[in-house]
Structure formats: C-alpha cells, structure tokens
Amino acid sequence: MTSSLVPKLDGRNLTVDVALKQPTIIRDRIARLADDQILLPHLFHGLGKPVEGGGLLYTVTKNEDLYTSDVETRAPGDEYKVVEGTDPEVRKADLADWGGKFQVFDEARRRNDVDAVDQQTTQLANTITRRLDKAVVDAINAAVTGDNIVPGNDWTALQFADGAEDVTPTSERPTADFSAAQLAADLQQLGVRHDLLLVGAEAAHHLRVAYAEKLAGMLDSAGLKLVVNPQIPTGQAWVAKAGEVGVVGFEQPLTVITWRDEATRSTWVQCYVVPAVAVNRPHAMKKLTGLAG
User: Fold this and answer.
1) What's the rounded Cα separation, in Å, for the pair 1 and 132?
2) Could you point out which of 112, 144, 151, 253 has its C-alpha 20 to 30 Å from the C-alpha of 198?
C-alpha cells in the first residue's frame, strides 16, 4: 500500500458510492493525510512483522551492552581470558487500539457529496495522527532521560543582525546547542550522528525569525533536516538519528471497513489502528531543554 490515493477524492474522479464499496480507498486517503504530519516515521522504523502476544518485546541498547569485560594481554602458551557480556533488559510495549467511525447517509451517496466524505475522512485522519503523535511524545519523555537530555540556550530573543549591540554570542545560539547534543552523543561512543531537528510550532517560529532566509543554510551546515510538529513540548527541541530512536509494530495496521445500516439508510465507515511503540535506542536522540527562557 502506498500513501497516495488513486483515484483521488479531491480530484473528483471518484464517486462516494465507489469509495464506500472499496474502503481501502478511504484507508489510503487517511494514510496519505497522516504521512504528511505524523512524527512516527521520522523517529521509528517498522518491526517488519505483525505484533503477537498482546505487546512488543524489545531491549534498550545502552553503552555497556556493546562491550564485554576487558581483554588482557596474552602470554605465550596461555589461553585467552573468558570475557563476559551484559544481558540487555527486556521490556514490553503494550498495544493500543485507537479508531473511530462516521456515518454517510444515502442522500449524500446518491448526490455524490464528495466534500462531505472528504471532510470527515480528513477529520478522522487528523484525530488518529494527533493520538499517534501523543503516544510518541509520551514514549520519548519516558525513555529519553539522563545524559540524553542536554540543557540549551534561550531561543526566544536571538539577535544576529550585523552591528547590533545585543547580538547573540555564538556560544548561545541554536547551533551551539546542536553541537552540544552531538558532543553528548559522541561521548557515549555509540556511533550516533544526528540528522533530524524536531521542534514545536513556537520554536520553529523563533528560528525562522532569527535566521530568516539563512535558515536553510544553517540547517544544511549542521547536517539537520527540520521537522515541525505541534505535539513537541514548548521549550524543547529534539535532535535525532532518523528512524533509529525506536520501533513500531502493529497487531492491526491502519484498517477501514464499511457496513450498511438499513434502519437509518446509511453506511458506516470505521477506521482503526492497533500499534505498539517502543523506544529501544534512546541514545539516538537528545532532548534540548530550556529553549523558552
């Protein structure tokens, strides 16, 4: 399945009747709308198989999990030392079952009221997206702690104008915060190179005002792609390795079904998704805090 809708609802090449008879068309419409907004594909990669047993078992990779006990110099005739590794902690991410339904009356179907169906599809897509994003934010706030949190500078009053008396020193600019986050990752020695910058709407506004037309150049020089999502808490920004922070699995992927209700002369459209979200590599992300002063 792709996330594009063929034929397109908004292209008026599809009748309401066909959409209700082929619910995968509505599913693809919701998937395409969600893909444009959702945090999940930026930070998480797919499990590659259905989730079984009511949850997703995973291990959290830590620095000590990548090394055994130290090796020793071998003398001629001696055996090498037996080394010991650590057993990573096994955790379980529970499944969540989210969905909703809406009703399409026969009058809208006969009159081919594409706008009404398209609007309800968009609303449901937005609601599912918001719920999935909240699950991602909750999982990250629970898992990305300790030395994966980096204190940042205030981004609300940045001043870069040439000749200004209160120009922001380089050590207090966002680029310094990105460098501090990368330094923290380098010191963990886990091979993480950040390539994503995720911010909320307010932080994105402050960056655009401060850097103006030079914003793209700044991000490019820092090796970061900007992602804006309103669910990211105010005063925070995240830098991460794309797709490496966690894993998402589905007991049921995005599914749309329809059924007739003859008592009301209508058709119900129901959409649901049953995911499990796990942050198994929290070190692949750094949370910058204190950005709102």
Assistant:
1) 19
2) 253
Contact predicate 278/93, CB 8 Å: yes
Among 159, 133, 140, residue whose Cα is nearest residue 238 = 140
96-122 pLDDT, tens per residue?
A: 999 999 999 999 989 988 888 888 888
The enclosing H or E element of 184 equals helix 174-188
3-state helix, strand, coil in the chain (%, to 5): 35, 25, 40
| Whether 272 contacts 99, CB under 8 Å | yes
Condensed to tens digits (0 to 9), the pLDDT of residues 8-24 reads 434 445 588 888 888 88
Q: Give CA 284 to chain center in angstroms.
A: 13
Q: What Cα–Cα distance (Å) separates residue 208 from each residue in 80, 82, 146, 186, 222?
A: 58, 56, 30, 28, 16
Q: How far is CA 129 from the centre of its chain?
A: 10
* Alpha-carbon distance values, 254 to 30, 105, 243 (Å): 9, 24, 20
pTM for the model = 0.83
Tell me how far CA of residue 166 lies from CA of 67, 171, 172, 287, 291, in angstroms: 48, 14, 12, 27, 18
Nearest Cα to Cα of residue 242 among 34, 41, 31: 41
